[in-house]
Amino acid sequence: MARNWFGLCKRSVAMVAGGALLLGGIAEAADDYPHPEKNPESTLMLTGKWVPESTHDIDFDVLPRIPSKHTVVNDARPHDGVNQHNYLAFYDGQYWAMWSDGPRVEDMAGQRVKYATSPDGLDWSDAQFLTPIPPNSGPDSPVYNTRSKEGFRWISRGLWVRDGKLIALASLDESAGFFGPSLALHAFQFNSETNVWDGLGVVYDNAINNFAPKKIPTGEWMMTRRTFDRHVSFLVGGTEAINQWESFEAVSYSDSRLLAEEPYWWVLPDKNLLALFRDNKRSGYLFRAFSTDNGRTWSDPVKTNFPDATSKFNGLQMSDGRYVLVSNANHEKRDPLVLSISDDGMVFNKMGYLTGGRWIDYPHVIEHDGHLLVAFAGSRKQTCEVLKIRIADLSVLDVQE
After folding, report:
1. In the chain, what is the straight-line distance between the N-terminal and C-terminal CA atoms, in Å?
2. Contact predicate 267/2, CB 8 Å
3. Is the distance from CB of 110 to CB of 145 less than 8 angstroms?
4. Using CA atoms, how far apart are residues 132 and 111, in angstroms rounded to an integer?
5. Which pLDDT tens digit goes with each residue over 114-161?
6. Model-level pTM?
7. Residue 162's pLDDT band (boundaries 50, 70, 90)?
8. Which domains can be identified in the chain, with CATH numbers?
9. CA 115/CA 99 separation, integer angstroms
C-alpha cells in the first residue's frame, strides 16, 4: 500500500523520540524520519506515545496480548534432541512446516531436516525426514552428535514455491565450527506422486541463506547469503534456474559497527528495499540498511532504536499493506516473542505480546486466509510450535495509537 512519505513524517511529529513532542515541527520530523535516499542514516525504527525514551525500558508484561491458537508440531524432548530453524509455507491446499532436527544441541553432526503438513495449521501430521543422513554422520557413526570436522549436518533453510513447485532449501557443511569450509546451499523438490523429496543439487556454493527467496520489483528472486567466514551478501537471480545467481556483498562480518548476522529484508511501498540485521556485538538493537538498486548495493548499516535480544527475527508485508515483524524484542533474553506493526515498513508504532514465560526464538511468519501463522522454537530449542492469529485480532493493538 503506497503511502506519501511526507504525510508519514507529519503523522510522526508527536511520536518521534519515544513519544516526546517534537518542537521543531514537521521539518524537523522529516529530518529524523528514515528514507532510503533522503535519510538512510536515521536511527528511528520504533516510536509511539507508549514507547519509553529508551526502548530498552519497554515493559513487555504490559503489552497488549494478541489472541492466538497454539499447537506443538514436533517435540524432541523425549529423546533430548533439538528442533529449530522453523519455516512455514502454504502449498497445494495445506500448510507445510520444516525444521532442523538433531541430537542434543543445535547443529551437531548427524542433524537432519524434518517436515510435517496440516490442513489448518493446527493439526499436524507425524514428522518425516526431508533430507538424507548427512555424509558419514548417521546414528551409528563415531562422529554422530559431536562437533567434528569429519562430521556433517543439514540445517533447515526454508520453503520456496517456485513455478508451481515446492522446494525445500537446506545447507550442508562440517559440524566442527559455526560454518564448515564445504558450506553449500542445497535444494529438494517435493514429488507429489512418490511423496518424497527429490534432490536438485547445489543452489550456491559457500552459502547459507536465512529465509527462502522472494521476488523483487525486477521480477528476479532474492535471498540473503552468509559465507563460510560469515560475510553477508545478497543473491539475486533464480529466474532461469535455481542455481543461477549473482552475489552482491552488503556488510563484512568484521565490520567495526556490528557483527551482522541472520539478515532479513523486504520491499518498501516505493519499491526500494530495506534490510535488517541482528548484531552479534550484542548492542541490543537491530541494524538497518537500504538498497535503491534492487539489492546490488546497500547503504551502511545503521543501529536503530528497535530493541533486540540478539536473536533471529522475521516479518512480512500483509495483504492490507501493513508490515509485521515478529521478534525477541527484550534485549535481555529471548522471552517474550512479540509482533510489531508498521504502516510503511520503516518505522513501527505498535507492539503486542504473542507468547512468553520461557525461552522461545527463531520465528517465521506467513499469511493465509485472513490469518498469520507464526512458527517458532520453544523449550530451549526442543520443540517446533505454531501460533495461528486472526489478522482481525491485531486490532487489540489499536490502543497504542
Report:
1. 19
2. no
3. yes
4. 10
5. 999 999 999 999 999 999 999 999 999 999 999 999 999 999 999 999
6. 0.92
7. very high
8. 5-400 (2.120.10.10)
9. 7
